[in-house]
Each structure stands twice: as C-alpha cells, then as structure tokens.
Amino acid sequence: MRQLARTTWTCLVILLTTLGFAGAQGFGFSPTVMNINAAGNLATQTTMVNAGRTPARFTVIVRAWKMAGGRSVLEETRDVVVNPANFTLAPGASQVIRVGLRKKPGAQELTYRVFVQEVPSEGTAKTTAAVGEGLTADLNLAVAFSLPVYVTPPTAKAAVTTTVKRDGADVLVTFANAGSKRATYNNLTALLGGTTRALSSFAVLAGADYTVRIPGLARAGATLTLTYRNADGQDVRETVTVP
C-alpha cells in the first residue's frame, strides 16, 4: 500500500510538471519576481489574475531558497509572512498577495520562493495515469506557481567566475558566484560559429554555483559566445574559450 502511494505521488509530480503549466495559461502574476529593499519597509506584493472561466481556490506558502551542490534547496521558514494564505479567485478577478520579512537583513541577499498552489476541486481537470503493476489512478491536475523573492541590501553585488569544461561532445559551463547578490541569466543563448543553443533561464544565488550543459559545442579552442539578460535588465554578451 505504501509502495502504491509513493508511486502515485511520483506520477502526480510528473504530470504536474508536464501538463500543469499548460493548463495554467488562464492565470497570471504581476510582477513575477518580488523584490524587497533591505533598507526599506521590508515588504512587497504581487497581483494574481484569473483570466479563465472558472473559479479556483489557492493556498500560499513560503520557503527559504538556497543552492547547494548546484541544486536548489527549499527549507521551511518563519522569516516571511504572507497574506492571504488561502483565497478563492473568481473568473476575471484579481488577488493581491502581500509578503513581509520578519527578520533583520544582513549584508548578503536573502532569497525565498512563494508557492501558489491550486486546491483541487470537482471542477479541476483530471487524467488517468498508470501507477504500476497494472493499476491506474485518476489524478487532479491542479496548477502550481513558484515566484522568487529577493531581499537585497543596497550594497550587495554579484561576483561571478565562469569556467568551461568539455564532456564528450558537450560543453559544461560553471557559474560560481562569490558575491553577496544573485546573478540572473534570463534567455541565455550560446553561440559557436553558426550554431546556436537556447538554454533555460536561471539564477545563481550568492555564494553558490551552477553548471549548464550545452550539447554539441565541444570544439577545442573555439570561442563560445554567451548572451543573456541580467538581474538589472541589461543585455550582456560574454565570450569564453572551449578548452
């Protein structure tokens, strides 16, 4: 019975990842990134809009967000208060979600993630999935959203070192951030000769590192051009040499 429950949850996570966001097109946020000035009133907000045709119920939780070993780590926290923690969003309506910091910021940027999770109801879309051993289960495809929250001191800065390695036909690019502020890589694109690779956007938190695999561009001695938009909204062009 425990094995069945574990397998069902795994299928649910996969389905939410592959299908949930396609069905989330009726919901939107403004802004999608929440910034708190560490020298200000330590509060921020975002507005969620329901552009769909049916009401939906949501619950909101906050997690401390760190990076370890190149991966995101989420931990329970009491540093942040969110209001409301539960709400129903009618078609065409909007809801302001307010976030406030309870602790005193230091010199390094603090990072959190706000999770807005739909509460499944009778009207939530369902699908039937195989859960192993000839069994199936009806799963509610509730949508979920994750929004970053940055508490940034005025003097905080990113300090990133970029290193490149070859791994077969691929290139591994590691971004190590020794600074006190995140480094953001939005719409990252790698260009080598006439070949372009579009990569997912990501952030490298203060004191962390992150490695990106770029397939098929491991040409020794070649110059790899990286273009992206940083946390300040500036377009950046960076060149590195493939070893």
From TrEMBL:
Pfam families: PapD_N. Residues 40-154 form the Pili assembly chaperone N-terminal domain. InterPro entries: Ig-like_fold, PapD-like_sf, Periplasmic_pilus_chap, Pili_assmbl_chaperone_N. It comes from the Bacteria. Signal peptide: none annotated. PANTHER family: PILUS ASSEMBLY CHAPERONE (PTHR30251), SLR1668 PROTEIN (PTHR30251:SF4). This is Fimbrial chaperone protein. It comes from Deinococcus enclensis. The lineage of its organism: Bacteria, Thermotogati, Deinococcota, Deinococci, Deinococcales.
